[in-house]
Amino acid sequence: MKSSPLFTDLYELTMLYAYLENGKKEWASFELFVRELPKNRNYLVFSGLNDVVELIENLRFSKEDVDYLYSLNLFPNWFLDFLKEFEFTGKVYSMREGEVFFQNEPVLRVEAPIYEAQLLETAVMNQIHISSLIATKAARIFSVSRGRGLSDFSLRRTHGFDAGMKVARNSYLAGFNSTSNVLAGKVYGMPVVGTVAHSFIMSFESEEEAFRAFLKAFPEKAVLLIDTYDTVEGAKKAVKVSKEMGVKLRGVRLDSGNVVELSKEVRRILDGAGFTETKIIVSGGLDEYRIDEILKEGAPVDAFGVGTKFGTSADSPYIDFVYKLVEYDGKPVMKLSPGKRMYPGRKQVFRREGEDVVSLFDEKLKGEPLLEKVIENGKPVKKLPELKESREFFLRRFSELPDEIKDIHRKVEYPVHVSEKLKKLYKSLERELEEEEIEGAENNNN
Amino acid sequence: MKSSPLFTDLYELTMLYAYLENGKKEWASFELFVRELPKNRNYLVFSGLNDVVELIENLRFSKEDVDYLYSLNLFPNWFLDFLKEFEFTGKVYSMREGEVFFQNEPVLRVEAPIYEAQLLETAVMNQIHISSLIATKAARIFSVSRGRGLSDFSLRRTHGFDAGMKVARNSYLAGFNSTSNVLAGKVYGMPVVGTVAHSFIMSFESEEEAFRAFLKAFPEKAVLLIDTYDTVEGAKKAVKVSKEMGVKLRGVRLDSGNVVELSKEVRRILDGAGFTETKIIVSGGLDEYRIDEILKEGAPVDAFGVGTKFGTSADSPYIDFVYKLVEYDGKPVMKLSPGKRMYPGRKQVFRREGEDVVSLFDEKLKGEPLLEKVIENGKPVKKLPELKESREFFLRRFSELPDEIKDIHRKVEYPVHVSEKLKKLYKSLERELEEEEIEGAENNNN
Q1: Which of A198, A301, B58, B82 has its CA 20 to 30 A from that of A62?
Q2: How near does any CA of chain B get to the CA of A407, in Å?
Q3: Domain A158-311 is in which class?
Q4: Do B72 and A3 touch (CB under 8 A)?
């Protein structure tokens, strides 16, 4: 999807202008991070970097964009002329897509003249947010799936076109096997799956007739929906019609009712008829909590179609990412507001066995550094990994995560330490700011 | 945004093929409705029709689309050739954008050869869902705003590009005054607003210097953010700098802290300095619940910037719209599954004072019919209302709604009745289906 630089909050543009009007062109660094994980999340999965790189590369104001800004009667002509030539000239450091991350860890840093770095804020946040939100939800579902197949069935309830595409992509990134979204199959090269809806069954005189018609169309590939009228009777009819037509029944889908009991009964019917390879697929109102229950109760389900609650991350529909100024003109900065604590300066994250350390960027510590340069002079420094590679990377990272962190019910905090040097910098800046505040208050009382 | 017919669930395409393969080309009617309103909603606001009309008009399979489908190895060549020529030839009936609606009321109906009507399902649901979800959330916020200004500040946390645009549009549709989303301003002609971020304040040596710089850039239009260090001190500095520079301060923004106490203190400081026209704008973690509290406690807030919880409809991030076959080949149909009750046949909704009646489409009842034809032979029958007209329509409809239904805390069910003719049809179909079921079970026992 092609973006526009006007896909931003107006204040990014008013600030851009105010910086230039005041001659402020020094370099600044902004870091994207999460202060505190959402209530129901012990970890987050980073994603959306591909979109950020694309939007930075294509960041140009068209004539229509500038004409629109002119019509707002907010900006002088010299500034509008400046925008016509605008390009991003800075650097971006980032974690890899599929990386698992935690509180206070910078996942991405933009370094550029302050007005350029500021302009990126809204679009970068928007794109990283939706992809990481969904990759995280997908990972939670993957973590309870015990090897069963997982398909993204959420397209009808995702928040619009762009979310529909990103939900499909990030489901695959974080362990799902396929999507029902055909365009995602085309664009991302991921597997697509589909069965049949209740309306199809209902449009025929009888369920048997509907099964016959669908098996005729897809003799080797049909998954029959068997719960339109009565699931157990539906299973018997599916067997009967498949036998009559001499076709191998690939699968049956259950979309309602007590799926634990029904799947056991359906399995007995299928096995009893020699249909041992016919898969049972379950859909309808699923998320990690429900899938975990279903599998704990021993339901013989081969795959799940996961929809609405997954595609909207319904139990936690947003992540409080922030994009904060951490360095300006070579000097580390931070904010003191209560509840808005942050660490100053350009940072790195080192991953070791069972713990992470957040440090200053130029420290060399034990462990694997997670942030790497992806853009320099406004251009990508290398090709980003393909979706399949990122999926493999996620699977590896996720397998290294301790089991208690993957608990979907219990809040467990992963140990994220702060290096000695970063702690020292924080303390010294804190003192400085407190002294300034006292001075400020004294000056005001004068 | 240009859509693709592949933005759909694969099963819509497998059904399309199975219908054609079995010679089924009869006309069918599908209705879009909600069986039960979400837990926290007493009403819903219909929106997204403009997108549906656009996507239907542009529904064409490109050569690349067909090539991709060929690569799936699912469909024969005659079907792929058929898709190249595919166009929607049917009718669409719909409520108007901005209409308030309730449980079991069809908001939109597609009538076409069954394979065409089926193909639209996913994209129609996706687009109506996000727009109606957000229009509804906006209406709830509007309902507690007591005439205060409302701005959409949610762009950084909406679910992607498309949601970002639709959130802005539907905020305006349902009573908001403006958005921070510049592209929405350009595309929809709605007012845009913006102030300044904490990072701007922090990039200067002192808060006063930052205020001076921003007032220099926007002497008549500046809204200063005063909570970066200390809100009360910030208010004093904003007054001091404005006086020094001889400019009128348009507004101040508070984004943290106890905004009830702080806004009162800030109002005293502003009024004491003669800045009685300077507005107080509050943002940060707002939704209808919090805004209602803030105003109940008498906070002198002039406008609210509403972000994440609004733009993701966080307390209810999805609506269970369904798209159900109600008529096939001239005969009304319905499904019997427990908990999935629905009314058969093509329907109309009549609105009367304090109640709605759902009837068969050709009934003539007292009240105003809410569904009207918008597409015939695949083409729009008239121009849809502009956003501003739809906003006025919403405001009128919303003002007619009883106060108890607008209660944001208490669940109250609006009376939606079913006409006698529709009840009779339901009963007779129910009997028919039950008899078939008994017969089916008997046949299976043979």
Answers
A1: B58
A2: 23
A3: alpha beta
A4: no
Q: Which residues of A touch B68 (CB under 8 A)?
A: 182, 185-186
What mean pLDDT do residues B361-370 have? Answer: 98
The partner residues of A360 in beta bridges, in order of sequence, read A347
Inter-chain touch B325–A203, beta carbons under 8 Å: yes
Q: To the nearest whole percent, how much of chain B has pLDDT over 90?
A: 92
Query: What ipTM was reported for this prediction?
Result: 0.96
Q: A159 to chain B: which residues are within 8 Å by CB?
A: 129-130, 133, 158-160, 162-163, 166, 312
Q: N- to C-terminal Cα distance for chain A? A: 57
For residue A445, what pLDDT is reported?
A: 45
A147 to chain B, minimum CA–CA distance in Å? Answer: 24
**In this complex, do A164 and B192 lie within 8 Å of one another by their Cβ atoms?**
no
**CA pair distance A129, A127, nearest whole angstrom:** 5
Asked if pLDDT for residue A396 goes beyond 90, the answer is: yes
Interchain CB contacts (distance < 8 Å): A and B? 345
The arrangement of strands across the sheet holding B251-254 comes to B178-179, B149-152, B303-306, B279-283, B251-254, B223-225
What tokens does A31 get? 């870091």
Mutate to test the interface with B, among A203, A327, A333 (most CBs of B within 10 A): A203
Q: Answer yes or no: is pLDDT of A444 > 70.
A: no
Query: Which residue type sits at B366?
Result: K
* A10-135+316-441 placed in CATH 3.20.140.10: yes
Residue whose C-alpha is closest to residue A151's, from A123, A180, A127: A180
How close, in Å, is residue B366 to chain A by CA atoms?
32
Task: Using a pLDDT cut of 70, give the percent of chain A over it.
Answer: 97
Per-residue model confidence (pLDDT) at position B445: 46
The chain-wide mean pLDDT, for chain B, equals 95
Say if residues A223 and A196 touch (Cβ distance below 8 Å). Answer: yes
- Decide if pLDDT at A102 tops 60: yes
How many helical (H) and strand (E) elements, i.e. helices and strands, does chain A have? 15, 19
pLDDT in tens, B246-272: 999 999 999 999 999 999 999 999 999
Residues of A in contact with B206 (CB under 8 A): 436, 440
For the cut 80, the answer to whether the pLDDT of residue A72 exceeds it is: yes
Domain A10-135+316-441 shares a fold with domain A158-311: no
Annotation: CATH topology of B147-311: TIM Barrel (3.20.20)
Of A195, A229, A318, the CB nearest to B314: A318
Average pLDDT of chain A, as a whole number: 95
What is the predicted pLDDT for the residue at B438?
Answer: 67
pLDDT band with cut points at 50, 70 and 90 for residue A434:
confident
What are the extents of the domains in chain B? 10-135+316-441, 147-311
CA geometry: angle B53, B58, B63, nearest 5 deg:
155
What value, to the nearest 5°, has the Cα angle with vertex B221 and ends B219 and B223?
105
In chain B, which residues have their Cβ closer than 8 Å to the Cβ of A118? 197, 199-200
**Which residue type occupies A407?**
D
Rounded (10°) angle between helices A77-84 and A10-21? 110
In terms of CA atoms, which chain B residue is nearest residue A208? B440
- The reported pLDDT for the residue numbered A446 is 39
Distance from CA of A274 to the nearest CA of B (A): 19
Q: Which residues neighbour A277 within 8 Å (Cβ) at sequence distance 6 or greater?
A: A248
State mean pLDDT over B170-190: 98
Determine, for residues B10 and A185 on separate chains, whether the beta-carbon distance falls below 8 Å: yes
Does residue B113 carry a pLDDT above 60? yes
